[in-house]
């Protein structure tokens, strides 16, 4: 314990008496009149830019609706912690419109960190000084400053409670948000766009300082100036879907359907910054108290139209839709609206309340009618019996191409069915006629592709050689990647020309399937030729493996059947296409196994 001496006690008494006298002196400090001094109000100055000048001067200078203003302020007995500004727009013969006060804190940096967004305070807080003190005393060592800076552009509240409560009680946090850097350059500078609807417009801009006692300058600084009306921009459609072609449109975007796309441009003599707003069918919803249907203003010169944009949501009906477009420049001047049209159909399969139905497309040639060489009636009976056994017979329709002039079902028919079962049961050559008529042409391929993109599901019982039947022999177009590779998600397929295919070994819940000895007989060596190996591509998966009668290692246990399952949809969108490609003609397999395989396929595609 330190030794206490007379000298140390004397030093302590002198210090205590001096401090007490200083405090008493401060408490009793008076001005010469004998009255205690109170808080001195802050003052505000504004630069005379733009000048308080005549209309003629501003007519010569252009007097655009955008102006940058500067101000400053001070406090004789404290500091300026914030500024508030507002302005009034007036036109001849009309009462001025005054915007509310905006509060901007007089802070340029926090803890040595520069601010990208000036800090604004909404509403009328009970104490700006509390907010200012909280921000000014954040400790960078605690990580508070960088964390808060990241919140300034996000309209978030301060992250911790103030240490000192308000007079009205503790407040857990005050809301702050970041200003627009294009508007709020600093606490003492801003660029503003003033309402200028008339040929001549006068504006009064006011600004006032606020000191650390939350006292406002009672005499805000102000400036008057004139602006002219900005010319209207002219808006144009830069690109759009063909106005005469019919577009199939879904109600929501999916990973396959990216919407109908319209792009825009403007002609504006006074600014390069524009925003756009658009709507479809009508500018107001007459069924809902004439509620405006215009989209929110956006600088993106693109509209992505879906069925949810329509007033008329009748399915499978061709509808002519008007499309309206307008633009406004950076000063708020709106163009005259323009109009175009497009034709669209909402498919039935995109309606979640539409009953699920199955379409079987029998593309088989009309054979002799035997088990080995079936006619279309025998094939239809085979699949109709399977659908009945699976409990789906009452919602299954069969389209037999041989009895329909070898016409493929049009897209308007396909879109009424949630699933298509496509049958290719026998190999054939493109020549001579009439075999040529049954080729699955590019036109038919595009119809089925469009159906799938709209959310259709596809099951395929393949021909012995997919290259024979899915290649296009009808037109002279340049060769392209086989349609089957794209849709079935297979790649680098290769063919086994020998009578070597004895069936498949199942995987992923699919059964092992053997050939039916009543259909594939001894004179065929109980095997089928021209069955391909189909390696899956991308996210596809093998559902069956080649059973080689000769155990040929080139083919044995190689993929034959493949499934591609669409990713889960993002609500409210519906799931787009899934495909189960069996890779060989199911008709020739044992019926019990085929039924089990189709049952698993329907489970996979959610049918």
Please identify, by name, the CATH architecture of the largest domain: 3-Layer(aba) Sandwich
- The shape, in one word, is elongated
- What assembly state would you assign to the polypeptide chains in this entry? single chain
- List how many beta strands DSSP finds: 33
Strand order of the largest sheet: 24-23-25-26-33-32-31-28-29
Largest beta-sheet characterization = 9 strands, mixed
Number of domains: 3
CATH fold naming of the largest domain: Rossmann fold
Structural class: alpha+beta
Percent of sequence in beta strands: 25-35%
Q: What low-confidence regions span 5 or more consecutive residues with pLDDT below 50?
A: 5-15, 17-30, 54-58, 427-432, 465-480
Q: Can you tell me the CATH superfamily of the largest domain?
A: Class I glutamine amidotransferase (GATase) domain
CATH class placement of the largest domain: Alpha Beta
The portion of residues assigned to helices is 10-25%
The rounded Rg comes to 39 Å
Task: Output mean pLDDT.
Answer: 81
Total DSSP helices: 10
Query: Terminal Cα separation, in Å?
Result: 90 Å
Structure explained in plain terms:
The protein is of the alpha+beta class and 607 residues long. Helices cover 17% and strands 28% of the residues. The chain is built from 10 helices and 33 strands. A 9-stranded mixed sheet has the order 24-23-25-26-33-32-31-28-29, with helices on one face. Residues 5-15, 17-30, 54-58, 427-432 and 465-480 have low confidence and may be disordered.
């Amino acid at each position: 314990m330190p030794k206490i001496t007379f000298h140390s006690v004397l030093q302590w008494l002198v210090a205590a008496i001096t401090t007490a006298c200083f405090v008493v002196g401060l408490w009793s400090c008076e001005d010469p009149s004998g009255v205690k001094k109170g808080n001195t109000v802050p003052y505000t100055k504004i630069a005379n830019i733009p000048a308080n000048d005549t209309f003629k001067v501003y007519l010569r200078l252009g007097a655009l609706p955008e102006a940058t203003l500067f101000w400053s302020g001070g406090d004789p007995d404290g500091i300026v912690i914030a500024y508030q500004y507002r302005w009034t727009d007036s036109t001849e013969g009309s009462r001025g419109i005054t915007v509310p006060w905006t509060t901007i804190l007089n802070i340029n940096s926090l803890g040595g960190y520069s601010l990208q967004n000036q800090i604004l305070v909404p509403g009328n807080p009970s104490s700006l000084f509390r907010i200012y003190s909280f921000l000014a005393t954040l400790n960078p060592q605690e990580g508070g400053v960088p964390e808060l800076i990241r919140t300034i552009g996000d309209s978030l509240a301060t992250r911790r409670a103030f240490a000192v409560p308000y007079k009205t009680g503790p407040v857990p946090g005050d809301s702050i948000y970041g200003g627009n850097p294009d508007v709020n350059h600093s606490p003492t500078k801003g660029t503003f766009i003033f309402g200028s609807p008339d040929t001549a417009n006068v504006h009064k801009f006011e600004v006032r300082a606020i000191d650390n006692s939350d006292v406002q300058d009672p005499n805000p600084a102000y400036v008057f100036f004139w602006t002219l009306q900005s010319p209207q921009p002219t808006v144009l459609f830069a690109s759009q879907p063909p106005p005469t072609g019919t577009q199939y449109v879904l109600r929501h975007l999916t990973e396959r359907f990216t919407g109908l796309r319209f792009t825009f441009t403007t002609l504006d003599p006074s600014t390069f910054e524009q925003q756009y707003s658009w709507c479809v069918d009508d500018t107001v919803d007459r069924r809902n108290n004439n509620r405006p249907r215009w989209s929110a203003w956006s600088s993106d010169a693109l509209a992505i139209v879906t069925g949810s944009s329509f007033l008329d949501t009748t399915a499978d009906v061709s509808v002519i839709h008007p499309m309206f477009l307008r633009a406004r420049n950076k000063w708020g001047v709106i163009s005259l609206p323009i109009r175009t049209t497009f034709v669209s159909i909402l498919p039935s399969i995109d309606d979640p309340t539409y009953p699920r139905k199955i379409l079987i497309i029998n593309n088989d040639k009309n054979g002799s009618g035997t088990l080995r060489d079936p006619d279309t009636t025998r094939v239809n009976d085979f699949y109709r019996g399977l659908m009945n056994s699976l409990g789906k017979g009452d919602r299954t329709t069969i389209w037999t191409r041989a009895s329909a002039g070898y016409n493929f079902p049009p897209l308007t028919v396909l879109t009424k069915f949630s699933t298509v079962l496509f049958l290719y049961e026998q190999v054939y050559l493109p020549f001579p006629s009439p075999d040529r008529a049954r080729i699955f042409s590019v036109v038919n391929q595009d119809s089925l592709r469009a159906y799938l993109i709209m959310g259709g599901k596809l099951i395929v019982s393949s021909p012995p050689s997919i290259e024979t039947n899915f290649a296009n022999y009808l037109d002279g177009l340049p060769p392209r990647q086989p349609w089957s590779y794209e849709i079935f998600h297979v790649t680098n397929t290769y063919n086994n020309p020998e009578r070597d295919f004895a069936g498949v070994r199942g995987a992923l819940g699919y059964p092992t399937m053997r050939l039916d000895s009543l259909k594939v007989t001894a004179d065929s060596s109980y095997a089928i030729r021209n069955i391909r190996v189909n390696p899956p591509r991308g996210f596809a998966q093998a559902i069956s493996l080649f059973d080689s009668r000769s155990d040929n290692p080139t083919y044995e246990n190689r993929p034959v059947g493949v499934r591609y399952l669409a990713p889960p949809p993002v609500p409210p969108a519906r799931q787009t296409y899934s495909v189960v490609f069996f890779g060989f003609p199911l008709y020739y397999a044992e019926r019990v196994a085929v039924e089990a395989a189709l049952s698993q396929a329907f489970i996979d595609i959610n049918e």
